[in-house]
Specification:
This protein has 185 residues and is an all-alpha fold. The chain has two domains: 1-95, RNA polymerase sigma factor, region 2, helix turn helix motif (Rna Polymerase Sigma Factor, Chain: A), CATH 1.10.1740.10; 107-185, Arc Repressor Mutant, subunit A (Orthogonal Bundle), CATH 1.10.10.10. 71% of the residues lie in helices and 0% in strands. It contains eight helices and no strands. α2 (22-44) packs across α4 (76-94) and α6 crosses α8 (162-184). The relative contact order is 0.10.
């Protein structure tokens, strides 16, 4: 009796996709779409753009099934992160930065639903500052803090050594802290 595709690991699923099995492709998309959407959203700051980018990445995988080679040593997810990240970077190079959200001035102590609104404003401000970081610093923070990847995995995806990744993270954190302190002074 043949095993279901849900029992296969990613690398075996890719083998089935390379044979043209749509069910294997559907399983792979179901398994990883949310993960890759999350990273795309953290880099694009747009629900629609993130969805389009992930869809484009999976479509690229389906149309060019032999792009990923299991014999090159990278896990599928590591390789696919690179595909999604490159599409995000290409998209960001083509667009202009988002304007600052209105109402970003610091708010005095508040009660009730206004606290939630203040938290949303702070998150929007942080998102804006993240967008302004140099590409590789933003990638390093996104992969390590938002995606929870190890420094080694993130370094491999970005194409740097672990020490360089740690340096990118430290510079990004320092820049963000300075921008936030300056804004709220």
């Amino acid at each position: 009796m043949e095993r279901g595709f849900s029992d296969l690991d990613d690398e075996l699923l890719i083998g089935e996709i390379q044979k043209g099995k749509q069910e294997a492709f559907v399983e792979l998309v179901d398994r990883h779409a949310k993960r890759f959407y999350a990273v795309a959203y953290r880099l694009l700051f747009s629900k629609d753009d993130a969805e389009d980018t992930v869809q484009q990445a999976f479509l690229k995988l389906w149309e060019r099934k032999l792009l990923w080679n299991p014999y090159k040593g990278a896990k599928f997810t590591t390789w696919f992160y690179k595909v999604v990240l490159n599409l995000c970077l290409d998209h960001n190079r083509k667009k202009r930065p988002m304007p600052f959200p209105e109402g970003m001035e610091p708010v005095d102590k508040q009660d009730g639903p206004e606290i939630l609104l203040d938290e949303r404003r702070k998150q929007a401000l942080l998102d804006r500052f993240l967008q302004e970081l140099p590409e590789r610093q933003n990638l390093a923070l996104t992969l390590c803090f938002y995606e929870g990847l190890s420094n080694k995995e993130a370094a491999e995806i970005i194409g740097v050594k672990v020490k360089a990744l740690q340096s990118l993270i430290m510079r990004a954190k320092t820049t963000l802290k300075e921008k936030l302190n300056h804004h709220f002074d």
